[in-house]
Amino acid sequence: MDPRLQGLLVGILFGIVLQRGRMCFNSAIRDVKMTKDNYLMKMALVAILVETIGFHLAAQLGWIKLNPKPLIPLAQIIGGFLFGMGMVLAGGCASGVTYRIGEGYITAFIAAVFYGITAAAVKGGPLSFVNNWLGKPITTTNNPGGLYGAKDGAVNLTVANLLNINPWIVAIIFAVILLIIVIVWKTTERKVSGLDWITGGIALGLVGTIGYISQKTYALGITGGWVNLFRTTTANINPTEPIPYNWEGMEVLGIIIGAFIAALLTKEFRLRAPKDPKTFVQVAIGGVLMGLGAGSAGGCNIGHILSGLPHLAISSIVFAVFAVLGNWFMVWYLFERR
């Protein structure tokens, strides 16, 4: 099957799960601070738990090679913080604004456009000089168990290869810690019309694992998909410089389609626009910050948190910490400081 069709189908599944689970990492992180609501955060933790076992099992069976994101400390620190602030202003994370386009949110479309254009500018466009300032990846030659993909012998850093121990040891310890947190942390009560936090988390984890097996080089992502859609669509206007659509670009398109189908079937689709025009400016600024952050850090909340943490990638751990801090800073600035 054509990889682009596989990406589209995986994206449709992903979009349906996101829409029915109402899963947005901005909301998950924000709600823990603002309202002490952990419902979506527990869904995210379940998904990461499922993927941690799923990714390592797929690698053990030889279906994939684990490909953690490269560690560039300044990139993940600055990029993570910018991304965290941006998703509060945009009203959604990378996946959140993407699937909400399928529900009819005009602000989500605006945020996604500014996010995609800015990320494309940073990743090989006119703002690519930003990445030159941030340094080069820190790698290792350790490849315990041979589960990691290597380029000229270099492997991107994870907890396992940093310590040079079997990745399964770290994965199982991490999975057990997540399981304990999920069981002990009392779940916030919430009226649910779609997938509950357990079902939604398991579904997200399974889709992520399927995505990895399909794409081979990595699991789910958003930033690279938007970059591919913008670059390919605009470049193909000029037939002398064709750029092909790829797996991730089709995945992002599939998310919108899947969310649209789910929203339509449940009668939750309608065009929605804010009454205050200032909101359009705010979400555009949020999209720009998200694009700067994800473009420089090498991934967004999906690439680094949902797909990166199951690798126990050092880069994704750093990004996740600073994305949370950026999110909470902007929550404080907008809603709590007064």
UniProtKB/TrEMBL annotation:
Family classification: Belongs to the TsuA/YedE (TC 9.B.102) family.
One protein family per Pfam: Sulf_transp
Protein name per Swiss-Prot or TrEMBL: Putative transporter component
Topology within the bilayer: Multi-pass membrane protein
Subcellular localization: Cell inner membrane
Annotated transmembrane regions: 6-23, 44-64, 70-92, 104-122, 165-185, 197-214, 249-267, 279-306, 312-335
Swiss-Prot/TrEMBL keywords: Cell inner membrane, Cell membrane, Membrane, Transmembrane, Transmembrane helix, Transport
InterPro entries in the cross-refs: Sulf_transp_TsuA/YedE
Gene Ontology cellular component list: plasma membrane
Chief location category: membrane
